[in-house]
Every structure is written in C-alpha cells, then in structure tokens.
Amino acid sequence: MKHKVLSAAQIRSSFIDFFKSKGHEFIPSSPIVPINDQSLLFANAGMNQFKDIFLGLESPHCRRAVNSQKCLRVSGKHNDLEEVGKDTYHHTFFEMLGNWSFDDYFKAEAIEWAWELLTDVWGIEPGRLSATFFAGDKADGLPRDEEAAKLWTKVTSIAADRVLAFGRKDNFWEMGDAGPCGPCSEIHIDLGPDMCDKKGVPGHKCVVNGGCSRFIELWNLVFIQYNRTEDGKLLPLGAKYVDTGAGLERIAAVLQNKKSNYNTDLFMPVIESISRLTGHKYTSKPGNKTDNAFRVIADHIRTLVFAITDGATPSNEGRGYVIRRILRRASRFARELGMHEPFIYRLVPVVADCLSDAFGEIKERADYVSTVIESEEANFGRTLDRGIEIFGDAAERAAQTTKKTISGDDAFQLYDTYGFPLDLTQLMAKERGLKVDTIKFEELMEEQRQRARAAQKSDSLTGAFADVELPVTEDTTKYLADNCDSVIIGWIDSEGFKTEDRIPADTEVGLVLDKTCFYAEAGGQVGDCGIIQSDGGKFIVENTTKVASCVIHKGKMAEGTFDSGEKVRAIVSKDRHATKKNHTATHLLQWALQDVLGKSVSQQGSYVGPDYLRFDFTCPKAPTAEQLRKVESLVREKIAADLPVTWVVIPKEQAQKLGAMALFGEKYRNEVRVVGIGVESENGISEAFSKEFCGGTHVGRLGSIGGFKIIKEESISAGVRRITALTGSALTDYFEKASDIVESLSQMLKVPAEAVTNRVEQLLTENKKLAKELKVAGTSSGPDTMAEAQVLLQQCEKINGAHGFDKLTTSIIVGQISNAPIERAREAVDMLKKKAKSAAIVLGFADGDKVTLLTGVTDDLVKKGLKAGDVVRIIAPIVDGGGGGRPQMAQAGGKNPSKIQDALAKAAEIIKEKLAK
Ligand code: ATP
Ligand code: MG
C-alpha cells in the first residue's frame, strides 16, 4: 500500500488544513445537544448547524467552511444503534469531517478537491475507490445528474467504469420531509474480497451499495440545489450549496491499514483499558462473543462522554432517555465481561485523553461525566442482575410458544420494575432468536402515561392558551421602569382569549395589555406581581407568564372591572427590587464558583425570586466549607466595590465570541441580550468579568445587593449541587432572626452571646452524664431481680441424664419473682443460663393484673428438642394469655395472676417430660 499512514489526529488536521488552503474557514463543531433546534435530539451531521443558512433564514458569515462535527446517530431518521458492535464501521458517536460552500463553488470543486485529498494528499490508490452519482427519478421529475457524472471523469483520474449511477434511495439526500435537498455523489472504498461478510449468501454479489462490508462509504458530497415544499413539490433554490461529510473513524481504518475502525488509535486505548479492567482479551476475530461486548462498550462510552459533556443527563424522557438507554446497554454488555460493579465510568479519562486535543471540553468536564456515569451504573446495577434472571424466565416461556415472542407484559415488567429499555429487551431477545410483543408493550406504556397524566393537576388557564393566536405584547419597559401606562387588549379565561364582555370578578384570568413593564417568568426568574388599575377597576397580578410573544398577567379583579381599550396603569410590586438583587447575585455566584472550583461548573438550573436565590450546577465533588467561604467572600468583595452592571443586545455569534456564558439546551434567537458586570458602558462589555446570556432584570450597581450569604449547599443528583443564598432585606431578616435566637439563648443561659456555644456544649455533656447515672441508679433500685434469680438457681431441681453419659447436670429453674422491668428479667434469664450452663428457665411475675412469663433454654437443650417458644405457647393460656419466641428465649403475657403458680408447675412438667425422652 502506497498511501500515508496517519494518526486520527493527523487525519483530522490534514483535512482541515487542506480545505483551509482552499480558502475555507474553520468553524468549530456545534454541541452534540443542539442549542437552537428542538426538532433534533442530537447533532447527526455536520450540516445541522448550517441548516438555517440553507433555508435562507440566516446569512452565512463566510462562503466556505470546514469542520469536524461531533455526531450521534442513535435516534430519529439516522439510527445506527443496531449495527454497533455487529459491524466494524457504524458507531453511535462519530466525527464527521466536512467542507461547505454557501453559494460559492459547486460540484466541480467539491469533486476535484475530495479526490485530491484522498488520492494525492493521503495517497489512497485510485483503483480502490468508486464514485456514485444520482440516476434521476421519474416520479419526482428529477433529471439524472449528468453534471456530476461528467465531472468525475473530467476533473479526477477515476476510471470511467468506477463511476456508477444509483437512484433516489442512495443518491438523493434529503434533510427531512421538507426543506433543502439535492443529488449527492458518494465515494466508496473497496476493502478487498476478504472483507465480505456475506460470503455464501445466495445471490450475493460484492458491489458498491451491495450490502456487504467489502465496499464501504467514506465520503458523501451533497449538492443542495432544491427545496422540497410541504406539499412534496421540488423547487430549484436561488442559491446552490455544497455539504459534504466524511467519517473520520472509517478514514482512520483505511489509512492505518486496519480491518476495523475499532483497531484504530481512536478506539484501541479504550479497548485496552476495558481489557485491563475486566481481565478479558480483545481478539479481533469474527464470531468471538466477548469481542462484541468490547466494541459496544468502547462505542457507547464515547457517546456518553460527548453527550453528557454537552449537557444531556440520563433521565426518563427525550434526550436523557436516549443516554440512559445507551448506558444501560453498555452495563448489560459489561456483565458479559463479568463486571457486576460499576466500571464503565473508569473509561472516561481514556476517552478524554484520546480526543481532548480536538474537543477540550471533554477533559474539562471529565470528572463530572464520570460521576454521572458511575451513579447511573450503580443505580441500574441494583436491578440488572435480577432483571437478567427475569428475562431468562420470560425468554424460556417465549421459546415454548409458537410465535417465539416475549410477551408485552414481560417486556413492560422488565421496563417498569427492572429499568430495561425496550430496545435492550429486544436486543437480548434477538440474541436468542426471539421477538418481543412491542404492540402490547406500547399499549401498557400508554396506559401508564394516561395514569400519570390523570394524576397531574391541570392549570385551567394553560389549556386555554393552547390553540389561540395571542397578540404580541411590547415589554421592553421591564428593563427600564417599574410602572407604565398601558391599554387593555383583552383577557384569557378558561374558555380562551376574549376582547368582549366584562372581566368576571373572583375568577382567575390572564390580562393582556398592549405594553407592559411586568417581567414574565423566564430563565429561572419568577414572574412579577403587582397591580393594574384605572379609575374603574383594580386588578391584582399574582404572576406573569409569557406564551409566544404575549405577556399574560395572571390574577383577579379586586375592584370594579375593565373594558377592552381602557387605559390603565401597570405597577410592579416592590418585590421586583429584591428579585433584581438576587438575579445579579446569581451571576456573581456563577462567576465565583467557576473561579474557585474551575470551568467544570456549569449552570443546570436556577430560581431567582424576591425571597431567595437557588443555583444548581455541575460539580463532581461536594465543595469544601473553605471553598464555599472563598466563593462567598469573592461575591462580597464585588458587592462592596459597588461595580456597575450593564447589558447589550448583540448577534448571537458576537456574544459567543465574547465568551458570554449560555445555558446548555436553551433556545436563543439571532439577537441575544448579554448582561455584563464590572464595566460602565455597553461599549466595554468585552472587558466585563462576568458575561452571561440573560433576559432577566438586574440592579444597576452591585452595592445595592447589600450583602450575600450561602445558607445551604446540597447534592440534588449525581454530580449536580445546589446552593441556596440570600441577599438584601431577606438577608437582614435572616440575621435579625439569628441574632434574636442568640439573644434569647444568652438570657436563658445567663452568659454573654459569645459564650453561648460553650455553655450549651457544657450542658449537653452534663446531660449525658446525668442520664447515665440515672440509668445505673434505676437498675439498683426496687427488688433485686438478680438476687431472686440466684436463690431460684440454688433451690432448683437438677437432673442428670439429659446428656446421656455426660457429667453435666441440667438445672430446671422455675419460679415466681417480684415484679421487674422486662429487660431486667431478661438479664436474669441470661445470667442463669450462663451460671447453670445447661438449664431450662421459666420465670413468672405479676404487675397488678398483668402477668409475664419468660422462658430461656440453653443451646444444648434446644438441640435436644426443648424449645422456649413451645413451652411458653403451652403455658400462656393458663394465665389467660399468649406469646411465643425463639427456641432460646420466649415470652408471654397474661391477665390472670392467680394462675401463675399453675402455669409454672405445668412448665416444669413439660420440661422434664421433654428431657426424659
Ligand atoms: P452508511 O450508508 O455507511 O450508513 P450514510 O449514508 O448513512 O452511511 P451519510 O449520512 O452520508 O452516511 O454520512 C456521511 C459520512 O459519515 C459517511 O460517508 C460515513 O463516512 C460517515 N458515517 C455515517 N454514519 C456513520 C456511523 N454510524 N459511524 C461512523 N461513520 C459514519
Ligand atoms: Mg447510514
């Protein structure tokens, strides 16, 4: 082979450098959890981040781009999960190298450059490569891509018989049901006849797109030139785009002369670690059973590291459930390597070492990712082994049925009780040649969802918002003033949006104004409260929310009423000031936490209200008390310096360039608001020490926050901590209360405030000592049970022979003693057992009308069949009672003290009878 041998890192950088030399700008990979796109769970192609450009919604800031995109193909249109482990070139996570033209060059350059890179730069033998182009589609009225067909032989050295036409399935690329699309040209490599995995399959021929692993696709060049409209028509686009994608892992296998992607330097360090940790060997031999487990775990850990780093966390729905499913599959395969304790998390640093040069974020957050994975593994581990057993039973039952299908009920039980995702059950079923009744499973899932829905309380107003077109409210005043003049547009009640009628009294409605200074709940900050009034009426606003661009003031008429079109005054409650203080303090807190704990701190959620602030953030370990004190003092220093707070509205890209912190998964528009601390005017925003994407309300200067204190720090889930803190008057109230408590303690204890702690400590020690003394005193007062028991021992009947020829005599100690606490009576029985060595003891005593019978039997006699529980059960009815216990010690209660002696006599009789046998 004449081609170059390159490491994956060299391949990535030579790809990027090659296209840079052709005038392309490097654009970093977008996060694997798409920031702007709720329609996509995970990035699955390099083009995702450029989608709006193709759709004409956004203009590109460069004409040629190159990138290495983190991709996940585990859900939706592109799902390669089933192939993972079974073949050696489909992964759930992979890197897609790509180059783009935004209405700049087109097919000729795209083809020429791809060929140049593959054959000239990397030196892959042209004879191993084939190219495909679009053959046209009659139904769609799409012509054959003659242009591409011709270009292949014109601008490259490819042999004409290696340029092949394929139909829509293979060579017409579409983003979805509608949207930009176009014909594509794929480059496939021939890995040689040995690599065919369909040898001997009747009718199989090794050809491009022939379904075997001899020919695999390396690179797809898509020529976006149409737009498919909602009604299915294809319209030519005004502009033409090139969108290409090449799998790094596949190219690495080719250039490193490996038969499998797993044998490249992208996977081997992970595979070697798995081998070290499990003691199993990876053989790279087809058909080896444990190899598959290695591949699945090595694949899945990369997915987990990248997805969790970019903000996905295991949960029961959406993205989180995809992550959970992947992790649970990996855990199940870990069992095949004999691993029953969490171990997958230990591979996180290995993946980070392999890939952090290209994606620094995975190293920064590696500790956090490990913590999340470990805790998830431990949780699932608790039910996994039992689940595997349950599955085994279900599979055996299924194997006996004609349909060879695991029932929906079994699959649901595995899901609901043992945490088995459906696809895991399916995978395990497939391994045994079984199917799963997914229809019944879905029915059961739906029933469960309905139960959950019914249990959820519905908000009568929210329902009404759903289908109505609501007016847009102008609400920029919220940043500038606490009151404003407005006009009533209408209101929402449980029936929908209204502009006629009168607002009903005593009913919660949502008032809609033309403009407002009320802040609608968003980004963790609570909605404002306040009043809206006119000469004719007064409305109390209890909360403010937003639906689309309509601000809804929720509350009730307190006096009179309003008509649509009426002028009103909107006045926000003074609580707003407290909320502002808490919001700015939250920004300070995030900054200080990153300063003290490092960049792995990232916001997971927050609550900002007038009463307190709460901030949830990722952090692998609990911060120490000292670190928290440092955080507090950093925040306080800034507050004391009374620095200014300012904000600007700028394009998203510009804000990202400034390094402003954004929230993972949050949807931001093209224009974003950035709040900066520490600079006087918006011109200096880039110098601000804290910069966050934020739509909330803030103080003008830090001094007005008036103080800061963390009152609680706790863990809320694996790797996620929560801080609760106070500022302003809530903090003053808190200190006031604390000081009142100290004051009253100081008076009560008659010591100065500084001495309260010492005094309380002293009192607690004294208290402990007294309690101990009291216990001792209690034991020595009253009748002396021990002495009475001693007497019974001296006077008791002793029998020989209970041990055959053994010299040991057995004491039958039966008698009444004075009333005693039950613990003491038990101690007496224990003492008698010890002293007599071999004994059957029955003590009875009365406390008023209450009788207690206590029986003890030494082990040697228990072995002979004498059981304390049996004795007590027989004699208890004599004193009108009942009871039982262990063979060595049993107890009964009764109500007839006059019969104690009878009961004891009977006991002696039973014992002797039993021992005589
Ligand atoms: P295939 O037919 O092999 O599944 P594809 O047609 O789904 O590939 P594209 O969507 O065109 O692939 O993606 C572009 C490139 O990304 C492919 O040429 C291939 O090199 C790589 N690629 C696609 N899917 C995967 C995957 N699951 N794992 C690794 N690389 C992949
Ligand atoms: Mg595919």
Can you walk through the features of this model?
This protein is of the alpha+beta class. 38% of the residues lie in helices and 24% in strands. The strands form seven sheets. Strands 1, 2, 5, 6, 7, 8, 9, 10 and 11 form a nine-stranded mixed β-sheet that branches. Helix 8 (289-309) runs antiparallel to helix 9 and helix 25 (868-875) crosses helix 26 (900-916). The model has no long low-confidence stretch (mean pLDDT 90). The chain binds adenosine-5'-triphosphate and magnesium ion. Residues 73, 80, 90-91, 94, 96, 217-220, 245-247, 249-250 line the site of adenosine-5'-triphosphate.
Could you tell me the mean pLDDT?
90
Bound molecules: adenosine-5'-triphosphate, magnesium ion
Number of strands: 33
Report Rg.
39 Å
Summed up, the helix count is 26
Note the main sheet.
9 strands, mixed
- Assess the beta-strand content as a share of residues: 15-25%
Name the structural class.
alpha+beta
| Alpha-carbon distance between the two ends | 93 Å
Q: Enumerate the spans where pLDDT stays under 50 for 5 or more consecutive residues.
A: none
Report helical residue fraction: 25-40%
From the spread of the alpha carbons, the general shape counts as globular
Topology (SSEs and partners):
Blueprint: H1 8-21, E1 25-26, H2 51-54, E2 64-72, E3 74-75, E4 78-79, E5 93-102, H3 107-121, E6 129-134, H4 146-155, E7 163-166, H5 168-171, E8 172-174, E9 179-190, E10 215-228, E11 234-247, H6 248-255, H7 268-278, H8 289-309, H9 318-336, H10 348-355, H11 361-364, H12 366-400, E12 405-406, H13 408-418, H14 422-431, E13 435-436, H15 438-455, H16 460-465, E14 483-493, E15 496-498, E16 509-513, E17 530-533, E18 537-547, E19 550-560, E20 567-572, H17 575-597, E21 603-608, E22 613-618, H18 625-640, E23 645-651, H19 652-657, E24 671-677, E25 690-693, E26 708-717, E27 720-727, H20 728-749, H21 756-780, H22 785-795, E28 797-799, E29 810-816, H23 822-836, E30 839-847, E31 850-857, H24 859-863, H25 868-875, E32 882-885, E33 889-894, H26 900-916
Parallel strand pairs: 1-2, 6-7, 12-13, 29-30
Antiparallel strand pairs: 2-5, 3-4, 5-11, 6-9, 8-9, 9-10, 10-11, 14-15, 14-16, 14-20, 16-19, 17-18, 17-20, 18-19, 21-22, 22-27, 23-24, 24-25, 26-27, 28-29, 30-31, 31-33, 32-33
Helix pairs in contact: 3-4, 7-8, 8-9, 8-12, 9-12, 12-13, 13-15, 17-18, 22-23, 25-26
The structure holds adenosine-5'-triphosphate and magnesium ion.
